[in-house]
Amino acid sequence: MAVFSRLIPVAASAYALQTIFALVFVPQQNEKYYDLGGAVGWVSTTFLSLYYPALKAKFWDHSLGSFPYLLSFAPRQLLVSAAVGVWAVRLGSFLGMRAMKAGGDSRFDEIKKQPKKFAYYWIAQATWITIVGLPVYFCNVVPSYVHPPLGIRDYLALGIYAGSLLLEVTADRQKSAWREAKNRKEHDEEFISSGLWSISRHPNYVGEIGIWTGIWALSSSSLQSNAYPRGTIAFAAISPLFIYILIRKASGVPPLERAADKKFENNPKYQQYKNTVPVFWPWGSTK
Predict the structure, then answer these.
(1) 85-102: string of b/e by CB count within 10 Å (b at 16+)?
(2) Alpha carbon of 235 to those of 74, 125, 131, 180, 239: distances in Å?
(3) How far apart (Å, rounded) are the C-alpha atoms in residues 183 and 57?
(4) Below-50 pLDDT ranges, the chain
(5) pLDDT at 216
(6) 165 touches 213 (CB < 8 A)
(7) How many Å apart are CA 126 and CA 111, to the nearest integer?
(8) Under 8 Å CB-to-CB from 237, ≥6 apart: which residues?
């Protein structure tokens, strides 16, 4: 269970950082930096998990003279860390800039006026970082020598990650371009139904689930090694499962679908779109 105990400082850092953000931004009723705060949380916890053994050895055990070079870590550790870093910086900056450009985030129009509820969302963000990041933290908190060499499973996992990231980025850019064209009066469409949005009503979220499935799969060879307790790979699978439930059943798709149903209830074009384009998976159901 030593591996699990090494996750405690990582989780504690996630909650500490988001608490600091809450102390700063909740009194200001400022939600513009919520997603950027999440990105900072992801990068910091990933870095801490990667360097935790060295930090413990130097400052707790006093058995380390100097910190290891970045390239001294196992290739799999570097890959999962880079995967999270690329995703977090891209998504955090995209959502953060969108919020600042729009003058705020409509998700928090009412929430930010309720201090306790707004603070809860910052703590919920720390929980999201802790749970979804499990495959990465598990992979990083053990020494580099226990990780097996990269194999076909890892390359397939990288393919899933890269393809899913491309899907998410493309969907976001298509919607941004559509919105900017609408602002320039180049079209009068009330909702986007072109590009990837013609095969799924939420293609960006499909990409998000694929990203975390790929990261979990990339960590899986290490999590099945003797350095981890039996069942660690299954425990780490909470990551993509949690993301799926969160997006598909809770705070992702359902509120967006309810808002669209209310806004376009008398729009025959939207009703046709809803009845013909799958709600999530391109090959799935429209409901």
Answers:
(1) bebbeebbebbbeebeee
(2) 22, 20, 10, 43, 8
(3) 56
(4) none
(5) 98
(6) no
(7) 18
(8) 216
Residues in Cβ contact with 192 at an 8 Å cutoff, skipping those fewer than 6 apart: 174, 175, 178, 179
Distance, CA of 194 to CA of 161 (rounded, Å): 24
One-letter amino acid at 196 equals L
Cα–chain center distance at 156: 20
Closest among 53, 208, 224 to 135, alpha carbons compared: 224
- In the block, residue with structure tokens 């226990």: 146
What number of CA atoms fall less than 13 Å from residue 203's CA on the CB side? 25
Comparing CA positions, the residue from 170, 199, 21 lying closest to residue 96 is: 21
For residue 188, the Cα-to-chain-centroid distance in whole angstroms is 32
Write down the residue that tokens 């809450």 correspond to.
22
Closest CA to 233 of 168, 157, 165: 157
Number of H helices, E strands in the chain: 12, 0
Report pLDDT digits (tens) over 83-119.
999 999 999 998 888 888 878 787 888 899 999 999 9
Q: What are the Cα distances from residue 38, in Å, to 15, 33, 44, 45, 77?
A: 11, 9, 10, 11, 21
How is residue 86 written in tokens?
Answer: 């690329």
Contact of 200 with 278, CB cutoff 8 Å:
yes
Helix (H, G, I), strand (E, B), or coil: what is residue 3?
helix
CA distances for 122 relative to 14, 87, 91, 233, 271, angstroms: 10, 20, 17, 28, 36
The DSSP secondary-structure symbol of 63 reads -
CA–CA gap between residue 118 and residue 42 (Å, rounded)? 20
